[in-house]
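Protein modeling request. Please complete all fields; requests missing the sequence field cannot be processed.
Requester role: graduate student
Desired output: 3D structure, token encoding
Chains: 1
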Amino acid sequence: MAEPATDLSPYDAVVLVSFGGPEGPDEVLPFLQQVTRGRNIPTERLREVGQHYDARGGISPINDECRALLAALRTELDSRGVATPVLWGNRNSRPFLSDTMAEADAAGYRRLLAVTTSAYESYSSCRQYREDLARTVRPGLVVDRVRQYATHPGFVEANIAQVLAAMEEVGPRPRLVFVTHSIPTAMSESSGPAPRSSTGSYLDTHQLVAAAITRAVDEVTGEEHQYDLVFCSRSGPPQQPWLEPDVNDHLDQLAAQGVTDVVLAPIGFTSDHMEVVHDLDTEAAETIRRLGLRCARASTARTHPAFVGALVDLALERAALARGTQVRQPVIDGAAVSNISCPGDCCVNLRHPDTPTLAGS
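Delivered output (361 residues):
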């Protein structure tokens, strides 16, 4: 007899783990110092970056996005008859993950399931979260996590819907420009478990997701669309290779080729946080105005029902695996199922490879 799909045992609570962001002018610099700790970035450079937040009252959108996702997860869990509490902890701002772990310990919870707001495999989008979990977990607490979910059909379905909605704002057969966060090429090449391709899991997975969305759009519209994968939010020194092309440079190239209609789809992000509202809605929007392009920016997955449902499915899947039950682990065509327990050479920490992590084998 199949196990009920409402059982999250052995977990006492689910913890939504996110990046965090400032919620007022006084929090901007401390937040940026927390994010860049150990990297010796001058305060003046941090103040320059802080102007992105200052332009929005010193407030990052990410915490409100998390609050909305928490509410949506609670509604979805309740609709399935799952009463398991859902907690929230940030890596770089209040509510800090360390405080959330202390609260879980005080509440008597002994086993937690982490769900991060980062979908892809790389050091910064996966392993660093596991390092922070290892750093903040309390003695006697066990923390597992759901697998990385960029290729889960629910995440992809949500992005398909957002792209189709954006396409209604532009002319026929727009160029689909999929956007994600640039990372150093060395980080990209070491992303995912070995054996890996020469480009690594981070880039390969984005290509799979972009192709799957485009195929679905072609099927719905009955027309073929060209697409590209581009990058935003580069922050490294000029001499360090990062993934390219930059979204603004690419828009210049498209305009020179005679492209007139574009949909920007930030598939590398789960919510409309600072990299989206500044890099796309401010900087790229200015490039679009300068070039005279017709452009619509698709929403991220945010609280789309397919995405929220996928996160709950992933939690239930992980709980069943923790109980020793074999379950179906859906992924899109061509994708492999991400690890729930990562080997030591997965998404390598190139600067400090011996840093302890959770959910590692």
